[in-house]
Design brief:
1% strand, 325 residues, mainly alpha, transmembrane helix, cell membrane, Sugar ABC transporter permease, globular, MetI-like fold
Length: 325
């Protein structure tokens, strides 16, 4: 009894500064063991599929052979990088990739912001939830299904769009075989699939806005448009800036699944991008796959994306005081 009383007394002893004695990190982990067990599968997945594959980037500097392995393949330095930079298709690939990324930035990025602003103004909760759910649904549709729907809508024989054109006396257009239509269709698919999902991020940011700000603006005679531009937009500016920086980091990345599904030789001039070219050359070419070439091009894209993100983050931090870090 004496020992138990003493142990209970010492358990509530405070340090001189008023804080409790610090537990060892092992005891802290053991006390939260259930939470760490829940976290464990995600950490294992990140380790196996995100961190460990980074060591495989060494093959970008090798003439990698599956039979010899990484340890015994010949080193070639920057030969694979030079091969891509001197390729006859290099500038066309860069142009197509940048144009698709630029159109994505111009349309896919701002449309969710605009949609979230209008959706936030709906006062009937049932209608708001219905519209939000309906807009979010395309995110769960696979790229293969979306492209199949697009083919069906734009088919020159029986497609809804061409049926409407024919009713106005306009001849049918084979949209999917016209290189001039590839970029608008690709961007339209991305907008359709992503705008509802991205809008959730901005709607979540809007929920943290103090309602007193809207009440004060309304008492001052601000109209609904003025409240959007004077209260809502400034309040979510930080979120918009962060999302824009992340979009800048993906400026050299396109949705390869959609491109390959929409791919055909008649649209190569506008549809052939860096990722599709690497796929053809490194993985779908005759003979043995050229993994070293694919790794070299992928590493170049990652380094350039990192530079763009750092530059955009620094610019944002300097002029808007909002940044990733």
């Amino acid at each position: 009894m004496m020992m138990s009383a003493q142990s209970r007394a010492t358990s509530v002893v405070r340090m001189k500064d008023g804080s409790r004695p610090r537990k060892s990190w092992l005891k802290q982990i053991w006390g939260l063991k259930i939470l760490y067990l829940i976290l464990l599968p995600g950490l294992i997945q990140m380790l196996l599929f995100k961190l460990l594959p980074l060591f495989g980037l060494v093959i970008a500097f090798q003439d990698y052979s599956v039979f010899n392995g990484i340890l015994h393949s010949d080193w070639v330095g920057f030969k694979n990088f030079a091969a891509f930079l001197h390729d006859d298709y290099f500038w066309r690939l860069v142009r197509n990739t940048l144009l698709l990324a630029l159109f994505n930035l111009l349309f896919v990025f701002p449309i969710p912001v605009i949609f979230a602003l209008f959706l936030n103004e709906i006062r009937v909760r049932a209608v708001k939830r219905f519209v939000q759910t309906l807009s979010f649904f395309p995110y769960f549709i696979s790229s293969a299904v979306m492209v199949s729907i697009l083919y069906r809508l734009l088919s020159p024989q029986g497609g809804l769009v061409n049926e409407v054109l024919n009713s106005f006396g306009i001849q049918s257009v084979f949209f999917m075989a016209d290189p001039n239509w590839f970029r608008p269709l690709y961007v339209a698919l991305n907008v359709w699939q992503l705008f509802g999902y991205n809008a959730i991020i901005y709607l979540a940011a809007m929920t943290s806005i103090d309602p007193n700000l809207y009440e004060a603006a309304e008492m001052d005679g601000a109209s609904r448009w003025q409240r959007i531009f004077r209260v809502t937009l400034p309040s979510i500016r930080g979120t918009i800036v962060v999302m824009f920086i992340l979009a800048i980091g993906q400026i050299l990345t396109v949705d390869l699944d959609k491109i390959l599904l929409m791919y055909n030789p008649s649209v190569y001039d506008t549809a052939d991008v860096i990722q599709s070219y690497v796929y053809r050359q490194a993985f779908a070419s005759g003979g043995f796959p050229n993994y070293s070439f694919g790794a070299a091009v992928g590493l170049m894209q990652s380094v350039l994306a990192f530079v763009l993100v750092m530059g955009a983050n620094r610019f944002s931090k300097k002029f808007t005081e909002s940044s990733l870090f």
